[in-house]
C-alpha cells in the first residue's frame, strides 16, 4: 500500500506543478476514440489551502487546444497493442498542442477498463475533546486497514465520503470543530494493476509525465450530473464503445463504481455480421438510421447498403429500418440487463433518490431513454456534459462527458487519502452494503 500512496502523492505534486506552470493536457483513452484537451490555468486563482469535498480546490481554466482521433490498440478500455496506442496518443496530443501553440509536459488520463471494484471502509480515532486538526483527519484516514483486494489489483481512488464527530454525522470537513470521537467512511476503488502499469508506460513513451489517473465512470458522472442529483442520489451510466461505466453518487461523493464490458462497438459488430457489411458502413448506418423503438412507418423506410465488393446485386441491397432495429435492440437490452444487475447488487434501490443519467457516445441512439426507463424501472434522462470555457461546440455532446469531467477533475479535485500526510496505511475491510446502509440510516 505504501508504494500506491507514494505514487499518488507524486502525481498530485506534478499536477499542482503543472497548474502553477499554467498548462496541462487531459487525455481520454477510449476504446473507439482518443481525445486530448490542452488546458490553460490562471495561476493567480490557485488556492493555498484545500478543503474536503468535491469542489475543494477551485481554479479558473480555459480550453486552448482540442483534438480527437480514432483510438488504436484499445479493447474494452484497456491497452491491447502498445505501439498502436502510443501512435494514437502521439497523434492526438500533437494535434491539440498545435492548435494551442504550446507544449504540455504533464497529462491527466482517464480510462474505462481494468475491472473496477468498490469497497466501503471506516476508521475511528479519539481526539479527547480537542479541536480537530489536519493531523487528526490524516490519523482517522490512516486508522483504516486495506481490504483484501488481491495482489494483482491496486487502489485508484480513496475518497472520504463522510465524517462523524461524536453523534454528529454527515460532516464534510470536521477540521476546526471540537469533539471526542472522530470517525470516517471512505470509498475505495480498486482496479487491475497491470492495466494501470501499461497506461503509465504508454504515457511515458509519449514523452509525457503522468500527473493524474481517474476512472471514466467517475469523471463522466461529475460532468453529466447536476449538483442536486449528486447530493440526493443518482447513478450515471456512461455508455462507451467498448465498456459501459456505472457510478453512483450521494451527497456529492461517488460511493460505487463498476463496469460492464459491453458497449456501442458490440452493437456495430452485430449490424456488420447480421447484414454482411464492413464495420465502417455498419457504424454509419447505426449513426444515421439506428433506433430502438419501432413505429408503423419503419417497414416502409428503406436504407440502402452500398458496397464495393463488385457484386452489383449485393452492393445495391436495401433493408427496412425495422430490420435494423431488430438487430440493435437485443444487444442494447443485454447491456441494460447487466447494468440493472450491478445496480441491484450495489443496493441502489435503498437510496433516497434513484435517478439515472445516461451519457457517453453510445447513449445517443434514439429511443434509448424510453427503453432504459422500462428496463431499469427508474427515472432516466440523457445527460450532456457541463459547458467549460473554450470547449468547441462539436465536443458538447454526451460522447465527451468523460473528457469534460476529466477537466473538472484536474481543476477541482476532491480530496483523497493521498492529500493528507498519513504515516500508516491500514483500511479495515467492510462491504459496500454497509456503506449504503449507513447512508440510508443517516440521510
TrEMBL record:
Keywords per UniProt: Cell cycle, Cell division, Cell membrane, Membrane
SUPFAM superfamilies linked: Actin-like ATPase domain
Lipid bilayer topology: Peripheral membrane protein
Localization: Cell membrane
GO BP terms in the entry: cell division
S-adenosyl-L-methionine found in the keyword field: no
SHS2 domain ranges (all copies): 24-224
InterPro entries tied to this protein: ATPase_NBD, Cell_div_FtsA, FtsA/MreB, SHS2_FtsA
Domain of life from the UniProt record: Bacteria
Assembly: Self-interacts. Interacts with FtsZ.
Family that this chain belongs to: Belongs to the FtsA/MreB family.
Cited function: Cell division protein that is involved in the assembly of the Z ring. May serve as a membrane anchor for the Z ring.
Full protein name: Cell division protein FtsA
Organism whose genome encodes this protein: Meridianimarinicoccus marinus
Taxonomic placement: Bacteria, Pseudomonadati, Pseudomonadota, Alphaproteobacteria, Rhodobacterales
Amino acid at each position: 500500500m505504501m508504494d500506491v500512496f507514494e505514487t499518488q502523492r507524486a502525481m498530485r505534486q506534478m499536477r499542482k506543478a503543472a497548474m502553477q506552470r499554467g498548462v496541462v493536457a487531459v487525455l481520454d483513452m477510449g476504446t473507439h476514440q482518443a481525445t486530448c484537451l490542452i488546458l490553460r490555468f490562471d495561476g493567480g486563482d490557485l488556492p493555498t489551502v484545500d478543503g474536503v469535498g468535491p469542489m475543494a480546490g477551485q481554479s479558473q481554466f480555459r480550453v486552448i487546444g482540442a483534438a480527437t482521433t480514432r483510438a488504436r490498440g484499445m479493447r474494452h478500455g484497456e491497452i491491447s497493442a502498445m505501439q498502436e496506442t502510443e501512435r494514437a496518443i502521439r497523434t492526438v496530443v500533437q494535434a491539440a498542442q498545435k492548435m494551442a501553440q504550446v507544449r504540455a509536459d504533464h497529462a491527466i488520463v482517464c480510462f474505462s477498463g481494468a475491472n473496477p471494484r468498490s469497497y466501503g471502509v471506516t476508521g475511528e480515532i479519539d481526539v479527547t475533546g480537542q479541536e480537530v486538526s489536519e493531523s487528526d483527519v490524516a490519523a482517522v484516514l490512516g486508522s483504516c486497514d486495506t481490504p483484501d483486494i488481491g495482489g494483482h489489483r491496486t487502489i485508484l481512488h480513496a475518497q472520504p465520503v463522510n465524517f462523524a464527530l461524536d453523534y454528529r454525522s454527515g460532516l464534510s470537513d470536521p477540521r476546526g470543530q471540537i469533539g471526542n470521537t472522530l470517525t470516517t467512511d471512505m470509498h475505495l476503488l480498486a482496479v487491475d494493476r497491470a492495466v494501470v502499469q501499461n497506461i503509465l508506460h504508454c504515457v511515458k513513451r509519449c514523452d509525457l509525465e503522468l500527473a493524474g489517473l481517474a476512472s471514466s465512470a467517475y469523471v463522466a458522472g461529475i460532468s453529466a450530473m447536476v449538483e442536486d442529483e449528486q447530493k440526493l442520489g443518482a447513478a450515471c451510466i456512461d455508455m462507451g464503445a467498448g465498456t459501459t461505466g456505472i457510478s453512483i453518487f450521494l451527497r456529492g461523493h461517488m460511493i460505487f463504481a463498476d463496469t460492464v464490458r459491453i458497449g456501442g462497438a458490440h452493437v456495430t459488430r452485430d449490424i456488420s455480421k447480421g447484414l454482411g457489411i464492413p464495420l465502417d458502413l455498419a457504424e454509419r448506418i447505426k449513426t444515421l438510421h439506428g433506433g430502438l423503438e419501432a413505429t408503423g412507418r419503419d417497414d416502409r423506410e428503406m436504407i440502402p447498403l452500398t458496397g464495393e465488393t463488385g457484386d452489383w446485386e449485393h452492393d445495391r441491397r436495401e433493408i427496412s429500418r425495422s430490420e435494423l432495429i431488430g438487430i440493435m435492440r437485443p444487444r442494447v437490452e443485454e447491456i441494460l440487463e447487466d447494468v440493472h444487475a450491478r445496480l441491484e447488487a450495489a443496493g441502489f434501490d435503498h437510496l433516497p433518490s434513484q435517478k439515472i443519467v445516461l451519457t457517453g457516445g453510445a447513449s445517443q441512439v434514439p429511443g434509448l431513454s424510453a427503453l432504459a426507463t422500462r428496463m431499469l424501472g427508474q427515472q432516466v434522462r440523457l445527460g450532456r456534459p457541463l459547458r467549460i470555457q473554450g470547449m468547441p461546440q462539436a465536443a458538447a455532446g454526451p460522447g465527451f462527458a468523460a473528457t469534460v469531467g476529466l477537466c473538472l477533475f484536474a481543476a477541482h479535485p476532491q480530496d483523497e487519502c493521498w492529500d493528507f500526510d498519513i504515516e500508516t496505511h491500514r483500511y479495515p475491510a467492510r462491504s459496500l452494503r454497509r456503506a449504503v446502509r449507513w447512508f440510508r440510516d443517516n440521510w
